[in-house]
Amino acid sequence: MNGAAPAFPLAISLGDPAGIGPEIICASYDRLRREGAAAHPFFVVGGLEVLRAAAEMRGLDCPLVPIAEAHETEFAFHAGLPVLAGLDAPYTPGTPSAQGAQLALSSLQWATRQALDGEAAGLVTAPVAKAELAQVGFNHPGQTEYLADVCGVDPRDAVMMLAGPSLRTVPLTVHVALAEVPRLVSQDLILRKARIVAAGLQRDFGIERPRLAIAALNPHAGEGGKFGDEEARIIAPAIAALRTEGFDVTGPVPGDALFLPRARAGYDAALCMYHDQALIPLKALEFDEGVNVTLGLPIVRTSPDHGTAFDIAGRNVADPGAMLAAIRMAAAMAAARQRG
Q: Is residue 2 part of a domain?
């Protein structure tokens, strides 16, 4: 792993040690090492013995280098995977525990602080189990909401974008019942999220004039009101307002046409009305390279777009592709911010 190293490394939170996080972190480092790629240095926050056991389980060539400070990463990275020492728990793949959840929470808190304090160029979060975290005092719906709170950002302005090599999607409503979506979709919601997405694409992806496509809510975009009037009453006026502000926006585009190859070539991100409208195409097309990006934060944050996968943890079958993609995307975003 050669090449000019940036001023600051990436921080990676461990995730739940009973999930696949530790093994795909080690597998990502091992793959970069074997490829001989010039990689942006990164360090893991806590879990030295967990990572050691996970690497051994997978038979990986992943030497671990304990460090005391983030600035030691650049030197240590050439010898092995740097691990900020001081936090640990037993490695019990597939069997979550309160001790493991506490390690996951402490790692997330410490890693976030590294990014906020400027010790890390960005943050990559491994998957956590929300139910397990709740048992150790974590009172946020998820990691994104926690990061918004710690960063002093209105939770509505921490926007989840799913990104892969050929597609970026943004769900305007996320973890709500489908029956609630028509009530929650508003012109204000579309305008607010679209502005944040456009700013994020400019700042973090270097896209000077982002092209946004906005999905319809109803089949055939409502077909003149036969299948619903949200397109005419809410979505189209929001698009018109965005165009007046100078944004390059198309829509409302029927959901069954929005993700065709020809359509995808015409936009940089698709804003979707509900969770599955955004996540199904991303996961169908790019599951092993899908990255969850949080736009609107003062820090860079990415995460692999999958969960803890307790059912396959410790079985040497978890694909590290999404974690590796999350690391690479965080590095690219940090570089874009540095240039901008």
A: no
pLDDT along the chain (340 residues), means of 10: 60 97 96 81 97 96 94 92 94 96 97 96 96 92 93 95 96 94 97 98 96 96 88 97 98 96 96 96 91 97 94 95 96 91
Structural domain including 202 reads 159-281
What letter does residue 264 receive in the DSSP assignment? Answer: H
**Residue 286 belongs to a domain:** no
Instruction: Label the pairing between strands 269-272 and 42-45.
Output: unpaired
Q: Do 173 and 88 belong to one domain? A: no
125 in the same domain as 15: yes
**Do residues 196 and 143 both lie within one domain?**
no
The predicted model scores a pTM of 0.93
Place of tokens 């929650």: 184
Q: How far apart are the first and last CA of the chain?
A: 26
What are the DSSP calls for 295-338, one per residue? ESSSS-EEEESS---TTTTTTT----HHHHHHHHHHHHHHHHHH
